[in-house]
């Protein structure tokens, strides 16, 4: 009888251990959060920036937050993927993000109030590239000339609106981001637009042929801003950035940041922003675009560049914790101001 009772007790203890182990395993699995992060073409120099952010988060929270980088056609395409739910986080220009959030320009009447910002982002150039043999030296010179336009990418979105505001009408040749350098080399097009500081695709073209990096003038930006407020800007790029840049010159510029869907849990976003905040100095160091654009001023840039999309609740929590002042317009409706 004693032996039988002992066996029953052992059986109960064994079953309890299995149940507890299963519950523990289920709990651990429940803590895992998978995110798909949209990026751009792997041929773009900006693809590495996205990989760096994902890597920092994955290393900081191994097995807890798993960010997978997804190659996309560009940052405007990322907005379409946000709407479809095929990505939850990714980079977009703040101008395009504002238009998408507010339901204007390409998204007229179709606002998406589920978009949230992670940080202020950084200022970067969109280079206007022309073949040297084309003889084009000003942006007005693109009128009527074959020009590679990449639909679905941020630089294409900005430059098409920029040219429209200025009355410049190139002979657009629609093609993918990856095909444009080859079209330039083959002489199929005379010009192209490309975002990125010292961009790899432009360096690739310059290794094969002579090019001109076309400057903009202050009056160009002023006129375009009147037509489409908040979309256009400029910055000075230094002599020697490319072989074709012989002196400092004014370039078209935009602000690029990272956005996330409102439904991603607050605690997950808090940890993502914390990982980037804690590693921001080391994160910026290898990337000229982030270094020149002061990416590490994560809240200051949002204020400086007039971010129109509010921060995610998780980002607000982290920034308040580290003593950052967040203006009321950047606090989302779901967070107490």
How would you describe this structure to a colleague?
It is built from 13 helices and eleven strands. The chain is α/β, with parallel strands linked by helices. It folds into two domains: 31-122 and 257-330, 3-Layer(aba) Sandwich (D-Maltodextrin-Binding Protein, domain 2), CATH 3.40.190.10; 124-254, D-Maltodextrin-Binding Protein, domain 2, CATH 3.40.190. Helix 2 (47-60) crosses helix 9. It is globular. The chain starts with a helix and ends in a 16-residue tail after the last helix.
Tags for this entry?
337 residues; alpha/beta; D-Maltodextrin-Binding Protein, domain 2; 2 domains; 13 helices; 41% helix; disordered N terminus
What is the distance, rounded to the nearest whole angstrom, between the alpha carbons of the first and last residues?
Answer: 69 Å
What is the level 1 CATH name of the largest domain? Alpha Beta
Proportion of residues in β-strands: 15-25%
Helix/strand-derived category reads: alpha/beta
Mean pLDDT: 89
- Gyration radius, to the nearest Å? 24 Å
In total, how many beta strands? Answer: 11
User: In this structure, how is the largest beta sheet organized?
Assistant: 9 strands, mixed
CATH architectural group of the largest domain:
3-Layer(aba) Sandwich
CATH topology of the largest domain: D-Maltodextrin-Binding Protein, domain 2
State the helicity in percent bands. Answer: 40-55%
Please work out how many helical segments DSSP would assign: 13
Order of helices and strands: HEHEHEHEEEHEHEHEHEEHHHHH
CATH superfamily assignment of the largest domain? Periplasmic binding protein-like II
Low-confidence segments, given as residue ranges, are: 1-30
């Amino acid at each position: 009888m004693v032996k039988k009772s002992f066996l029953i007790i052992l059986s109960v203890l064994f079953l309890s251990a299995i149940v507890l182990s299963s519950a523990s395993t289920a709990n651990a699995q429940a803590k895992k959060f998978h995110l798909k992060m949209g990026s751009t073409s792997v041929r773009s120099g900006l693809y590495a920036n996205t990989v760096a952010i994902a890597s920092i988060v994955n290393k900081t929270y191994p097995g807890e937050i798993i960010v997978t980088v997804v190659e996309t056609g560009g940052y405007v395409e990322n907005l379409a993927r946000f709407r479809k739910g095929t990505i939850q986080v990714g980079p977009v220009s703040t101008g395009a993000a504002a238009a998408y959030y507010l339901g204007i320009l390409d998204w007229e009447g179709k606002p998406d109030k589920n978009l949230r910002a992670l940080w202020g982002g950084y200022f970067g150039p969109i280079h206007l590239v022309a073949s040297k043999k084309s003889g084009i030296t000003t942006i007005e010179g693109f009128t009527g000339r074959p020009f590679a336009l990449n639909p679905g990418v941020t630089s294409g979105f900005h430059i098409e609106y920029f040219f429209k505001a200025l009355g410049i009408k190139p002979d657009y040749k629609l093609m993918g981001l990856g095909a444009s350098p080859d079209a330039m080399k083959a002489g199929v097009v005379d010009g192209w637009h490309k975002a990125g500081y010292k961009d790899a695709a432009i360096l690739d073209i310059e290794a094969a042929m002579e090019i001109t990096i076309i400057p903009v003038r202050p009056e160009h930006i002023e006129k375009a801003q009147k037509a489409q407020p908040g979309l256009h800007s400029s910055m000075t790029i230094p002599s020697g950035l490319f072989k074709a840049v012989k002196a400092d010159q004014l370039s078209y510029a935009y602000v690029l940041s990272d956005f996330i869907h409102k439904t991603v849990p607050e605690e997950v976003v808090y940890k993502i922003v914390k990982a980037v905040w804690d590693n921001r100095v080391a994160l910026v160091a290898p990337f000229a675009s982030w270094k020149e654009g002061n990416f590490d001023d994560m809240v200051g840039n949002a204020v400086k560049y007039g971010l129109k999309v509010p921060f995610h609740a998780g980002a607000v929590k982290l920034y308040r914790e580290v003593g950052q002042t967040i203006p009321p317009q950047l606090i989302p409706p779901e967070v107490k101001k």
